[in-house]
Please model this.
Amino acid sequence: MRAAAQFLGGTGVNEPVYIGGGSQLCWSGSQILGQCRPPRRGPPCTTSTASSLKGSNQPQMQIEKLLVFDHGDGISFDAQPDANWSVRGVRVKYSRDDCLEDDLLNAGIVDDSFFDGCYDVMSGPRVHLGPGRGSTSSPSKNSLMRLQPMDAIYETGQPVPQHEAFWKWSHSGSTPSSIAPSLAL
Model:
């Protein structure tokens, strides 16, 4: 893929860019840009529920030098076995849900990245994953992460503007804290 590639999401498009093809893939460069208008300037956003980039059963996936702007989830590692992923030199700006989604606790690393304006920086499990999970580690180094109140968010019915937390390891108490991964910050 060319480093200068640009993917534009439309106001009615709710599909991410999918990565597929096997293990040890590398996505290097490009921009994925949403085109969502804030509710005060037009119809409600539909990109607030869409991931911009999603792996699909891709172990050891590497994502580098990517800019994601104006989406729901920035990057999603929400499939099995998306384990041992890495995010390096990435910028996610104005993410109306999770800048990085990892609801299945797939191990990975964030390095030299800037998450600039997130509703939630990194998500964790929404459902109980069972015994044996929780030994994963999600280190983050040389990176900057900033929360920002969002004008439209994924969780409908929530008051806006608001943001959530840096790390969200469970959803509504459905996952015991004993399976949460260790963090190295």
About this structure: Residues 6-179 form one domain. The chain has one domain: 6-179. Residues 130-136, 171-175 have pLDDT under 50 and may be disordered. The longest strand covers residues 91-101.
